[in-house]
Fold these 4 entries.
Entry 1:
Amino acid sequence: MDEIERWAHIHIRNSECKGCRFCVEICPKRVYEMTTTYNEQGYRVPHPSHEEECIVCRRCETACPDLAIYIERVNTRLMRLHASPSSQMIGGRRCG
Amino acid sequence: MSREKIKFPLDGLLRRDRFPHLWCQGCGLGIILGAFCRAVQEADIDLDRLVVISGIGCAARLPGYLNCDSFHATHGRAIPLASGAKIANPDLKVVVIGGDGDLFAIGGNHFLHAARRNIEISVICSNNLNYGMTGGQQGPTTPLQALTKTTPFGNWEEPLNLVELAAAAGAAYVARWTVTHTQRLTRSLKKGLEKEGFAFIEVVSPCPAIYGEMNEQGSAWQMWEELEVVSRIQDSILPSEASFDLHERIICGEFIDRERVGYTLRLRQNRNMARQEVLAGYG
């Protein structure tokens, strides 16, 4: 798990999610997937299946109507590496 | 799971024990709540000095989730109570959050005169185009031809342009956003909190469960996408030109940002002058 270089840990409070799919649709890197698990209120909850692709744009965090997502930036060294002009993009699928 | 125990950045501002909140799936009010909390955090406002007052409606349940002093007033009477709180203690930051029906139909007169007096409160109006809590009746902002419970063959009344009204009444800061502009909305709310005058921010918020279903606008995400497509940001244009057409064009942006002397300041000056005159008269 720790061997994959990642920028963020995505925390989701499943018990507060209402399954509106905003995070799944809004993510430019398609990090989230809808699962078939249901929370206590009977809503289907999303799961960050491709967490390692997160670019910390925080669109899902600001757009979540239930305030159930928190993006914790974990690897600041990697952020600097990506931000420098000489570096190449490591992995990552195309946007959209 | 240990992941559930992580402290979120907004936890200090929210009453997390009341979550999940009562709004419907995909309702824009949760986004407004998050943007408001981030604005309070960025403006670095002491929670002991913040008062949030609301009337009746879906949007008026919002202060109940905030970890600050709040008051749930009678229908449409949030602005008079906020004015009273601000006059009694001008050091407070007073915010009114309400829906379009609460602020402009039942409490329309109060809004007009608070803007005219330029009292230093900020008013956040969540515009969902109908009366959501009572089941989707036609309200003052319902667009023409829209289907509601009380207009099953289409609405025949002209809707009110809220930003034009606020600007004409004399508000010091007037802006309109949709919930899709999350970052700009946060910045605008912060500006409104810091403004020494009457600040009015309209937030167009989708109501997928009632309005969207009756008008066949699809799921919450489809309503969001439509809002994203029709909204255009044009700052500093005349509020009378800020058209609001749900299917063609919604003009968003900051329309008015002007300096006017605030009401409590004038009141203090007037009181000091009166006191001096009375003392001189007795002397």
Entry 2:
Amino acid sequence: MTSRRRTTIVATACLLASTAMSAMLLHNIDRLRPHAAIEDVLYVDSPKVLKRASLGFDGLMACIYWTRTVQYFGHRHFEHSESYNELAPLLEITTALDPKLYPPYQFGASFLAPAPPNGAGQPDRAIQLMNFGIAHNPDNWQMYQNLGFIYYTELRNYQKASEAFERGSRIPGAHPFMKIMAAQMAEHGGDYTTARMLWTATYDASHDSDIRRNALEHLRAIAVDETVISLQNAVTRFGERTGRLPSGMDELASAEHFPGIPTDPDGNPYQLTARGLVVLARPDDFPFVTKGLPPGYKPSALPKFHVKD
Amino acid sequence: MAAIEILALEKTYMVGFWRKRPKRALHPLNLTVEDGEIFGFLGPNGAGKTTTLKILMGLVFPTAGSARILGRDWSDPEVKAQIGFLPEQPYFYDYLTAHELLDYYGQLSGVPAKERKRRVEEMLSRVGLQDVKGVQLRKFSKGMLQRVGIAQSILHDPKLVFLDEPMSGLDPLGRRDVRDLIEQLKQEGKTVFFSTHILSDAESLCDRVAIIHKGELRGVGAVEDLTSAVQGKIEVIWQGTQIPSSMKALGAECYVSGETVRAALPENQQDAAIDALRRERIRLIAITPLRTSLETYFVEKLQHSQTTAGKTS
Amino acid sequence: MNSRIAHIATNTFREAVRDRVLYNLIAFALLLSAAAILIGQISIDVERLVVVNLGLTAVSLFGVVIAIFIGIGLVSKEIEKRTLYTVLSRPVRRWEFIVGKFFGLAGTLVVNTFFMGIGVFGALLYVAHRFHASDALILVALYFIVLEFFIICSLSLLFSSFSTPMLSAVFAFSLFVIGSFADDLRGFAAISHGLTHWVATAVAYLVPNFSALNVISAVAHQQALSPQLILQNTLYAAFYTVMALSGAVLIFERRNLK
């Protein structure tokens, strides 16, 4: 074998082995540095400083920070984390670098306001962020939608929510539904119909999978809540008619002439407790429900993003 | 044992924007260089001389064929310890001094430390650079660089030395020094392979020559044989511009140049010519055998290849 | 064989040291360390922070510039100017040449970093008036910077083995910039789909991971660094360097030197 061939073989072997080892080590190092993406934010949370450090490549840096934000959120989600302290600074930095980048605002609306483990639990900062977005994007009616969304879902301030939708509806090109939502919130703030309209609009308006999943979960919860209320009313009617509680859901179903045993959106039948309460078979599958929870049920601390495919 | 054996060595480059057009730099070349001889590799510029040398040095890889140097394959790294190379228009690390450069090259050639010290000094004085050994090479003239080049090629006492245009850039004194050096190398028993396009150098130094043109070998042979007196003629040179009629009668071709006349005659007329001049009281300057110069042979070979140029690419 | 590599390395080191570009760059970097003191004094309480941040960034950036320009100069220039012909006509293997060049260049940068590091520590002493235990972390940051340099050197050699000096410099510098955002590249690969995902992942893993080696912010804020991280980074840098050098050897072995 010529020395040249020997060198080629050794060099090729080294190349392949070291490439594999590098990739593997890289993977390991990644795991050792969970805060990598947000290091800057931990140490320098002033958007102004970062803007200056970007040397004019603001647009690019905004994209990079946006990518980091999404990864950050997904990462912590995956680890069932309890807090999202860095979410607000990340979003603030991203929007400071590029105020016209829309997705961060939408993301902030969905996840800055709700309490942990579903979000950062900082509705004030969320409102601040939306106002910043409105100031820099006065022609974007969707900003108002996001603002109204926060007031409605987290702060339960139907008045302010309605105002936001109203202002947004006045922008040329706004979706007609803005006006409808304004009216709806003013008059029927606490209604399930209103909530359903809003969550459906949120689901439709976004391409982000996190936001859509969140909206979907809320819609499922609304469906369950409404069904449980109507089933509970049926139990009451049964009780008034027969003077006793139904022995089970099947008895109730036949008495009320239901097409079949009522099931939740996942297909599991609702259950009737001994005390006559309508409950879900698997309450953990339905974060955000307020009705149909068994007595003494403690929701798990897991972030509630479960959607069965 | 032959010092160099080249067998069907070929090199084709791919040229053009997409590298699809083949360009033949070297047609299958067969050549043998014997031990202890000075071999001249001649040809016009672009003939393929440097390509051949680079292949032998392992700087360029042949498309086909093989070569053996000192009995080993050209790609054998150990063979390099016994050969020296002077490239055309050499360029060296200009931040080093001549002394440092030779020392470095000695290290790379595997010369042991003690001997290296001695040899470096020896080489520097042999090429006449001992006075400037501490000067950085960036300050050297072309001629001085050439000398350094020669020094590094023989520093490690190689058996075979390759020189590419060793006389280039040298003044007449330098050229004479190099010529003397090459002859010394031969006397030391080394084989010298040098390529040049200056024929007079080759004629005076080489034992054998090869002529290459457009990548093809045109002729090989001992200098003597190639330029031997083919026609058995002599040349007579005499003073003055007079051409005696008796000379003409002998069939001399005369040519007046300045204050002398040169005449070519058949060899057997030598005595008659001398008598003719004496009778006319013309002063004889010289009588020499008339040889075909290497130049004539060279040009003839090239012209022959031009006429067959249609066939060669 | 080993002695030839050592000789080539020594010669490379000597060449780098005698190259005047080197001195200009070092002087500039030291100047920047001095400037850090000035800037630090403008905003009180953060002097130390500014000195460490700016000082280490200067060491890193200038070192990269030196690594790229001298590294490429050493090999590409040599190939272009044909100094290589007389070297390779000796019993030097082509791979020994590459490896020797690498060690010479790496050695130059280690020495270089050493002197610039002294500059940083000097500036630090000036503003803080004494050293703290946590200042040892700066040594770790410098060590990581040296690892970065090794990677850059090997990449410079890789590109020089087949490309012109200008292009090699551009490639090497681009990889430095991209490598500094390697985390983001992997993040982007993680959230993309289909073909983009695979291509981005492949690129993200091949690009040198400088973001992991850049601990300047952490050190400035006196954050501890795990020994695991130090070990893994060292191994990563070693393997990556071997990878790039193997590539360089494979290419260079085959190259026709015109």
Entry 3:
Amino acid sequence: MTSVSMTVNGKAVSGEVEGRTLLSHFLREDLQLTGTHIGCDTSQCGACTVHVNGKSVKACTMFALEAEGAEVATIEGMANADGSLGVIQAAFQEHHGLQCGFCTPGMVMAAADLLAANSNPSEADIRGHLEGNICRCTGYHNIIKSIQAAAAQMG
Amino acid sequence: MPKDNGIGESPKRREDVRFLTGRGQYTDDMKLHGQCYAHFVRSDVAHGIIKSIDTSAAGKMPGVCAIFTGEDFVEVGGNPAGWLINNRDGTPMKEPKRPVLAHGKVRHVGDAYAAVIAETYEQAVDAAEAIEADIDEQDAIIDMAQALANSDHRVHDEIDDNCCFDWGWIEDNRAATDAAFEGAAHVTSLELVNNRLVPNAMEGRASIADYNPGTDHYTLYTTSQNPHLTRLLISAFVMGIAENKLTIIAPDIGGGFGSKIYHYGEEALVLAASKKLGRPVKWAATRSESFMTDAHGRDHVTKMELATDALGNFLAIRTATMANMGAYLSNFATATPTYLHGTVMAGNYTVPLVYVNVKAVFTNTAPVDAYRGAGRPEATFQLERVIDMCARELGMDPLELRRKNFIQPDQFPFTTAAGVEYDSGNFGALVDKLEEIGDLKGFAARKAESADRGLLRGLGINTYIEACGLAPSNLAGILGARVGLYDAATVRVNATGNISVMTGAHSHGQGHETVFPQIVADLLGIPAESVEIVHGDTSKIPFGMGTYGSRSLSVAGSAIVKATEKIISKATKIAAHMMEAAEADVTFEDGTFAVAGTDKSLQFGEVAFKAYVPHDFPHDELEPGLEETAFYDPANFTYPSGAYACEVEVDPDTGKVTVCSFAAADDVGNVINPMIVEGQIHGGLGQGIGQALVENCVYDENGQLLSGSYMDYTMPRADDLPSFTVDQTALTPCAHNPLGTKGAGEAGAIGSPPTVVNAVVDALSDLGVTHIDMPVSPSRVWSAIQAAK
Amino acid sequence: MYDFQFEKPSTVAEAVAALASEDAMALGGGQTLIPTMKQRLAAPSVLVSLTGIAEMQGVSASGGLVTVGGSAVHADVASGAGDYPALAALAGNIGDPAVRNRGTIGGSVANNDPSADYPAAVLASGATVNTDRRAISADDFFQGMFETALEEGEIVTSVEFPLPESANYQKFDQPASRFALVGVFVAKHADGVRVAVTGASEGGVYRWTEAEEALSASFDASALADLSVDASGMISDLHGSSEYRANLVGVLTARAVAACS
């Protein structure tokens, strides 16, 4: 076991992990942040998408030890300080951008990553950016709508 | 005028808050004190005789708590088929035992023959590697035609022709149908494959069993669309655990699409392991396991024929299908290609004769069962493809050929040649709506514009009707169902006037927690926010049959209506007592009880409070409390219908198909929450277009699963799909349930595959292409173009 | 997955030393290796992360060369290789955004997946693969599917791309994995045209020399009209037959040439 320390959603955390402990495992099992979901084993579904040092990554395809000293953001940290839904989260609710909710954390994190880099994405930009996030429920239509609405609101 | 978030409104979904903040509670998110982990040892060959399994070394590995093999379950029952289908000659189908763990033989890649329970997941996997199994590989039986023809190779030794059943619908129509074909002016014939799919709910299956030795009670947290059905199967058929000693909890579920209807061996295994160890035992599927073991969908090989007169009037439909059952019968596998398939083969049409033959075949592949649409997508695909082909052969417009044969609005209720009675519909109105929202008139200009860019544009049209809202129990029973298909609700008015509704339906994306309160709020004239939905826990809810077959709103929602009406009836008695009036003089409207002709009135909340503070109730006339349960058994299936249009562009050099637009006009009956209905249609379209365009589950001749991960099984992504244009206003209410709803969950997945393929064939028709099997992948389209040259 | 010891050296020398231990493996972004380890198909005893080595980071341009550090992630190349637009565009279309934030060029070329994008760029560009111990020309580096000239424990520290006069990469996605079903990189250099094909051949990335000759004589898609692509030796799988892949090689090459001009 090796010690690992990082900042998750603004809080300093640490733990003892094996070399093989994935970041997703550390978040879910050690920190009880179970909003980061595991939907596949080939790094494709994107349900585990989190931000590491401001960039979206698949937490199931990164070892916890690789995140030593990093700033990690997960879905649990996306709400406003008062607990109300953040702009992207609220847009997903307003536009019915989720159904079963399983892919949703990854979708929100991917959307945040896109909007941080591109405040006015086209529909094609959004669809392209979601290449690594699979949703089985929505047909994506309302996810696109939600992200467009969030972009408009964030200006 | 809709009441406060009542029927017809689109309030934001209340379940979204927990899902959007990472506070959903899916099975694998739970961690019970002292839990250990199960890992299954699965066959890597498709067919083999288990000669020996040596677990001695594995048993000594670190952290191992227990190891199970098929030997441990010889005495327990098999996981049964839910429907018994009779052969054409009246003899019953073959039902081989489906054990908890494979015993004697492994029958598909992924068939579990052992399970290891250990302190950690990795320890369980380590120990599994130390199990030595001697499995004598046999030839795999994969191709259905060969399976039927070759009795030397058997999936189950006792079934010589690998045939589960040979079913005719309607057998009495067979001779007349054949005669109609003999005399027909025109016959269109089409051989096609309905491609095998993997459901791929984004959450894999997972189960945690928690046996309490102190109370001898089992609790099973599991990914189920129907916790009571799962309990019934485990109790009555597999494990023999008393129902009152087994609680099934289906918490937040990350999508089902059919695959989580069924009881699977992993659930029984963790229950047995928890009992043996006296500790909670957890199992969560990897995606690889999901690919190998979730019940797959579709997989039909079909010959479809349509006979018409010279003017295009449909005279008869005749079809023969081989339906893949896989290695074992999953719970609804036998109903899917029969009563969910043959019964809608007349489609939207007045065709007088239909004959459907289905042979269900065992192969060394994963079990196949109902997947979103279940039987009806296959029927719609073969029917609407052959109609499209017929139109081309007759030189008629595909839409006009359909219109010409539609059942007309004044013909309802209409009993079809496939033996069901459609209660309502207006197919012409749907087509009119489609022409408007799809701008079909503008197609020619768009085709020319595509041609300027070197691309071939096609327009595909499709109409569909489905039978859902499963199902009238008496009819289901006549047809062989081992269960009834009613649903149940308990409406509990609490003393302070808020309400808990316990429903037998399970919400795993459908939004019941938001929609069902709209119904109660509308009926009681109270805010929807004061109604809470409880679902998914057999210790809390009445015995309901769960969520599938687009049934929740029409069946479980109707049960809620019935229970709420009982509440109003009881509350009216209490109000009459409180206002010292005759019950017949008390009216109830918008949440207010009043005595006609007086100024006396009471709010619903006041009456509710009185129900629990009954100091002056006449005990022989009025019971305290305000809680009612109702069971609702539908009088008929519901019959949603629709008209779809799709435009594609085909790149003739690469064969790549791009879906440019998709328009869907659906009649789902009355709409309770338009936002959620639209979302259901979108999702169905995504899966149906996925089937048509990209999805394909492929086994090689040795039974190895070639598409066993997202590296090779193509899930439709955001950039594969267009935005959709949808409309649900050309509606006709269901005539036999109190809400007038028909169901929306499966519509998109049923109507869209033939729409896409019709569009691709339209794009390529000038080249002489008449059919391409799904998925219409670039390589298949390119090959079809080459072959037509 | 099997457990291992995790090392994260900060210099190339330390990395080379760490890789000397038995069953040690280098870890770039892990986007291929970690899924492989999950299947227990790789079992390193020591995993040496190369992402903490400053000298292997970054993208720079000078003297007609674009140099990409071995640990530069695809997103860095997409945004930082503006002097070589075709390379930047290729990097910006590998995998998906999250994969591009982790996957590295060193990991990609060292793995030499027959359907990977980077090998086509490296080969068509006539790039040089620099390692901890030598410089290897692209023509010598790729030696067949998953095979390279790298020795045990050898680390790709950077890749130097000479800037062509014009270049373009055409990728036809394998629909599930989004790797290249076929990808063709065409680079017009002062001394001739190089055409590299990925995804198609059972031998991994290769140069289509007939097309190079034809295009060196006349850099126009029409120069390819008389060439045919032999389907023998092409990959055939559930996503496309060898004949289909052969067709794509021709189509994509023509499109790449057209996009260059």
Entry 4:
Amino acid sequence: MRRYLRLLVAQLRLSLLVAAAYRTDFVVDAVIEVLWTSTVLVPLLVVFGSRAEVAGWSFGEALVVVGFFTLLQALLEGVMNPSFVAVVEHVRRGTFDFVLLLPADALFLVSTGRFHVWRSANVLTALGILIVAFHRLGGPPSASAVALASVLFAASAVMLHAVWTMAMCSVFYAVRTDNLTDVLSAALDASRWPSTVFRGATRFALTFVVPLGLMTTVPARALLGHLDTETCAIALAEAALFALAARAMWRRALGRYASASS
Amino acid sequence: MSLARELAVVRAFLRVGTVGALTYRAEALVWLLSTTMPLIMMAFFGAVAADGAIGRYGEREIVGYFLATFIVRSLTASWISWQINLDIRAGSIASRLLLPAHPLLGYATESVGAMPVRVLGSVVVAAIMLALLGRGAVTGDPVLLGLACVSVTLAWLLSLAVSATIGALAFFVGSSAKVMDAWLAGLFVFSGYLVPLDLFPAAARPWLDWLPFRYQIGLPVELLVGALDRPRAASLMARQLAFVLAAGLTTLVVWRRGLARFSAHGG
């Protein structure tokens, strides 16, 4: 465990050094990230300009969901998607052999292979959104709500990583899958609103098939102190189930890899 | 070069685009799958409209608006800025300069070649739209319907010109991909892609007419769903045409000046 933590720090330091070499790019990218946040906020501002509630959520409560969405987006686009592109390059060039030969878990190595450090600006934006949200709601959340929300957000991150791993397995079956990262980002967009805005089959699919709807709404409800035990248990069980399924799929997909040197 | 030869070159480029799109079918499918935003916005505004119409949009109008947005976005999106940016940075633009046609014509016709796959996706969505909402989903005014078709073409030309101009900025800066990223953020917010423009606060609406974004997505959508009357449609289409001409001219100027700075590899 300690070895993997050291490895993570080393990989992160390498990405930081690369980012520090292009400081102007770092600032420009961070500004663009903040611009993109407006794509979530503008629809909310327009709608809540004439409505007090949407699907049972007030403006402040919906902002909490947006805060968690921005955090997950930072994770997907700052850590997972850049690593995805690195894996595609490795498999195409045949250099994936070197990853497999390293004395560490291959999935861990590819998951932490490349970071886009400027996406960390999104973490600050998310914290800003959460602060504004609770200011509007009239006060900060309780310590126990913060603790529960943190656990459930970690479960959401595990679930997102599992979905990402399943998508990454396609690299071993098809040639051009770089733009699957766009599909992942587009799919995550479904979690920018509280899950109750979706109805019928879409709601069922986003809750049980690919639980994108739960990823942001569940931690948000926990932070707001509205979460029931049953939903909490379902979210944790789904995260564990997805992680196990993704690991099994990854092992199976690795079997398809035809080494460049053989 | 004779006209017949020009046409033969264009035909060859079109074939390259179509064959490329057919060879990488999965890629085209993935692109369509990643155009989920209109559907996500439809769910959000659908939930809003369920509690009572917002502006002129009831639940039915919201579904029609965002399905039309999906169709227009599929038909008009242009990604050539990334290709041009890559070609300039990698130096492979040099080989395009040796071809017997202007490189911009090559990029444009390759985009047209990829169109059949996009049209197919759009036709499916249009069929769903008509099945869900009936004929009332699109405008009953034949003039507006005709203008919508012209406007989609102009929107595609505008997107192409903007994309080519931003791509050609790579002649001057290290990478133009970030400029495109910033443009896309503006496009999403101010084009009607995420929020119908008539729902913006009254004070902001006149400004939206003077930004180019509306003419890339919003105007064809509004024409298609009958959100505009004829005089307003004519006035906005005149502006759309002006933006297309201005963007086309800018593309040519930026391309020429940029090319003068380009030093080819292996020369």
